[in-house]
Design goal:
The chain is mainly β and 341 residues long. It has 1 helix and 21 strands. It has 2 domains: 147 residues, Jacalin-like lectin domain (Vitelline Membrane Outer Layer Protein I, subunit A), CATH 2.100.10.30; 166 residues, Proaerolysin, Chain A, domain 3 (Beta Complex). The longest helix has 5 residues.
Length: 341
C-alpha cells in the first residue's frame, strides 16, 4: 500500500461535487485570489508555511467554506476570503503545500489545502553547471639549473619533492540544510564533496556557509637529460586551480511515513574553492640567456567560460472530479496516499 504523502483538514458543508488536485513533487510557490478579495503571495523556493488556518461560514443557511489565512517561515502572511470564529488549524507537517481537496457547486462548499507529510530527512544532489570562472596558481615549484656546457655526454638531473595539497569547496547553505533534519549531500567538484569517507572534512561557519575539504600528498619526481654544450633550467610545477562554479540543488525529501518527494531543481547557486591540479615539467634552454631573461620565465595561466542561471515556480490550480455528494468536512486531519497524485 502506498504511504501517506499529504494531509488535509476539510472545513465547510457537504454540498456540491468533490474535487481534488495534488502535485506531490512540486510544492506551491504562488497563491492568487480574486472575485471577493484580490491578492497574491509569491514565495521563495523552499519557503515553508508554519501556520495555516481555514474558516467555515454560512451562505443562505448553507454551510460552506469561507476562507483561509497563512504565515510563512519568512514572516509573510496572506488571507483569502472571510475570517470567522468557525476555524480549523491545518497541521503544518512538512510545511509545503502540495494539493487541495473540497466540494464545489454554486459556491465552494468545502475546502482544504493539502500539506506534505512531516519531513524526516533530505538528500541534496549538487548538479554542477559549466565552470564560469577559474584560474591556475602555483602550489609548489622545483627549479633545477644544470650546466653541461663543458660536458662530453648527456648529464642526468633528478628532481624529487613531496607536496601536501589541501583542496576545498565553499558555498552558502542550501535551504534544505537549514530545516533541522538529517541532510546528505551528493555531487562533487574536482573530487571534493560531502560523503561518508574520512578523507573529507566538513565545517560550518557563522556566515551560514558549508565547506568541504580533502588533503592529499603528491610526490614530484622526474629524471631529465641535459645534452653536451647546453645549460638547462628544468622546472617541475605542481599547480592548483582556483575556481567559481555554479550548481542547482535538487532536493529529495523522505517523510516520516516513508514517502519520497522529489522536488524540482532550485535556482543556480555559486560555489568557490581550490582544487589540486597536475604536475607540469618544462625544460628551458638557457645556454645563451641573460639573467634577466631567465627570471622572466613564468607559470601558465588559464581562463574558464561562464554559464547562465535559471529560475523556478509553480502555480496550483483546482480540478473538478466526480464523486459522492455525501462527504462531510472532517474535524481531524486526513492522510492522503501517494498514489493520489
Amino acid at each position: 500500500m502506498a504511504p501517506t504523502a499529504w494531509w488535509v483538514t476539510p472545513v465547510g458543508g457537504s454540498g456540491g461535487l468533490p474535487f481534488q488536485h495534488a502535485r506531490l513533487h512540486d510544492p506551491v510557490s504562488k497563491f492568487e485570489t480574486w472575485i471577493v478579495d484580490e491578492g497574491t503571495i509569491v514565495g521563495e523556493y523552499g519557503e515553508r508555511f508554519t501556520r495555516i488556518t481555514q474558516y467555515a461560514g454560512w451562505s443562505h443557511a448553507t454551510r460552506c467554506f469561507a476562507g483561509f489565512s497563512m504565515v510563512t517561515d519568512k514572516g509573510r502572511s496572506f488571507t483569502a476570503g472571510g475570517v470567522t470564529s468557525d476555524s480549523k488549524v491545518l497541521p503544518g507537517a512538512g510545511g509545503f503545500i502540495v494539493g487541495m481537496v473540497g466540494r464545489t457547486g454554486d459556491m465552494i462548499d468545502q475546502f482544504s489545502l493539502g500539506v506534505l507529510d512531516t519531513l524526516q530527512s533530505c538528500i541534496i544532489d549538487m548538479n554542477y553547471l559549466m565552470l564560469p570562472r577559474g584560474g591556475v596558481s602555483d602550489v609548489s615549484v622545483v627549479r633545477v639549473t644544470k650546466d653541461n656546457k663543458e660536458g662530453a655526454r648527456d648529464a642526468s638531473v633528478n628532481i624529487g619533492e613531496s607536496v601536501s595539497i589541501s583542496s576545498s569547496v565553499t558555498t552558502s547553505k542550501t535551504w534544505g540544510e537549514s530545516l533541522g533534519i538529517a541532510v546528505s549531500v551528493s555531487g562533487k567538484v574536482f573530487g571534493i564533496g560531502a560523503d561518508a569517507s574520512t578523507d573529507y572534512t566538513y565545517s560550518e561557519e557563522k556566515s551560514e556557509s558549508s565547506s568541504y575539504s580533502v588533503t592529499k600528498t603528491t610526490d614530484i619526481s622526474a629524471s631529465m637529460q641535459v645534452p653536451p654544450g647546453k645549460k638547462f633550467l628544468i622546472t617541475a610545477l605542481y599547480y592548483k586551480g582556483t575556481f567559481d562554479v555554479e550548481f542547482r540543488p535538487k532536493y529529495t525529501f523522505v517523510t516520516k511515513t516513508g514517502f519520497r518527494a522529489n522536488f524540482p531543481e532550485g535556482a543556480a547557486q555559486p560555489v568557490s574553492g581550490v582544487a589540486s591540479g597536475n604536475m607540469i615539467i618544462t625544460t628551458n634552454d638557457i645556454t645563451n640567456m641573460s639573467p634577466s631573461e631567465i627570471s622572466q620565465l613564468t607559470s601558465p595561466q588559464t581562463e574558464i567560460a561562464a554559464s547562465p542561471e535559471a529560475g523556478f515556480g509553480n502555480v496550483l490550480t483546482k480540478e473538478i472530479l466526480d464523486g459522492s455528494e455525501n462527504a462531510w468536512a472532517s474535524a481531524e486531519p486526513i492522510g492522503m496516499p501517494a498514489d493520489d497524485e
